[in-house]
Specification:
The chain has a single domain, classed as Hypothetical protein af1432. It is about 45% helix and about 0% strand. The protein contains nine helices and no strands. The relative contact order is 0.16. It is mainly alpha-helical. The chain is globular and about 60 Å long.
Amino acid sequence: MTEPALTRHAFDGTMPTGVVGFTAMADGTTEDYALLERYEQAYVAGLPDRILTTLTHLDGSLGGYRISRLAHSLQSATRARRDGAGADWVVAALVHDIGDELAPYNHSELAAAVLQPYVPEEVHWVVLHHGVFQSYYYAHHLGGDRNARDRFRDHRWAGLCEEFCARWDQCSFDPDYPTDDLATFAAEVREVFGRVAWDSAVVGVGGERLY
């Protein structure tokens, strides 16, 4: 579920300098890896801004809909926000299709992986499986099984995923729906992706409800 057990720290604002002495990782020293950890902390601190930038790339993906994939993502997050959902769910709705650009056939898995170190388990699970739950609305039109989600029927979070798709995903292709701008989600994105990764106080089971 997680990366190897390492102590993860938030960036303290001090930019590192210098380079390591090794050319093969097996030859690295404690000092080398401490330096690299500081570089990683500085890089990770920029993740929220990279998430926001990556979302803008969805404006040109997957034609044929009445709105862009970015507009769909914003609309999904706007619906979550107006339902009174917390930051975890609002951000999940915002980034649930962020994988479309690089992983069109497994976009759910990519989006879920991006979220996983920063959100409660049920939020990760819902985004991971939203693709198959969303297929309920269209798979039968393409010769597929719209009830493929039934294989998860007994899972504790199946109802959450069904509700996520019904309330926020499948209905968010409306060009006339008053949708909040990406900039209005910046604070929530920074809240979620600005956390220390794999914080056990966060990534455990949360409230197990959408709003």
